[in-house]
Design brief:
By secondary structure, this protein is of the alpha/beta class. 44% of the residues lie in helices and 17% in strands. A seven-stranded mixed β-sheet has the order 3-4-5-2-1-7-6. 39% of the residues are buried.
């Protein structure tokens, strides 16, 4: 995998580079959160960080692997590269959206490695979770960006919103998409 031009690298480039190095060393991760939205929105939204959930029992190797590619540990689970605006953070797993922890991530094949990330449907639900639970209006906008660009499972998103006690969130999403 070619080293990104760190100063101009976007979330997709940094994720592929970091996740490939982790995968080559036996550590599978799932990309969750805003960086998934940045990737699916094709850069319209910028998150500034990668939130990774490790699916490995080899987590003790993560600091050395990241150090080998230029990332330094800044605090517990937070890593920064001195030339890159995007930082890496390991969040507690398993990957989940609200109370749903039965997440089946999508994947990309990069240099012979499977790199995992939320599907467009799960990315939309993840963004809506912040809209519902934290009243983060910008997260509704982010969900709509992804929904406008990618097919998603409408019934799954609608049922999830209802289960989260916010059936209007699905209506808000559909209305937002219509206005784009």
């Amino acid at each position: 995998m070619k080293t990104p031009h760190w100063k101009n690298a976007d979330e997709l480039e940094v994720w592929k580079f970091v996740a490939c190095h982790l995968a080559k060393n036996g550590i599978d991760t799932v990309l969750v959160g805003g960086a998934v939205c940045a990737i699916y929105s094709e850069g319209i939204y910028k998150s500034g960080d990668l939130d990774l959930v490790s699916r490995s029992l080899m987590d003790h190797k993560i600091p050395d692997i990241l150090k080998s590619i230029g990332f330094e540990k800044k605090s517990g689970r937070h890593y920064e590269h001195p030339e890159c605006r995007i930082f890496v953070e390991f969040v507690t797993g398993p990957p989940g959206i609200g109370d749903d922890i039965d997440i089946k991530p999508d994947h990309l094949k990069v240099d012979g490695n499977k790199l995992y990330l939320y599907s467009p449907t799960d990315c939309i639900r993840d963004r809506l979770a912040s809209y519902i639970h934290f009243k983060a209006r910008e997260c509704l906008d982010q969900a709509a960006l992804v929904a406008k660009k990618h097919p998603f499972n409408h019934s799954k998103v609608k049922a999830w919103c209802e289960a989260e006690g916010a059936p209007d969130a699905f209506d808000d999403l559909m209305e937002k998409i219509k206005k784009m």
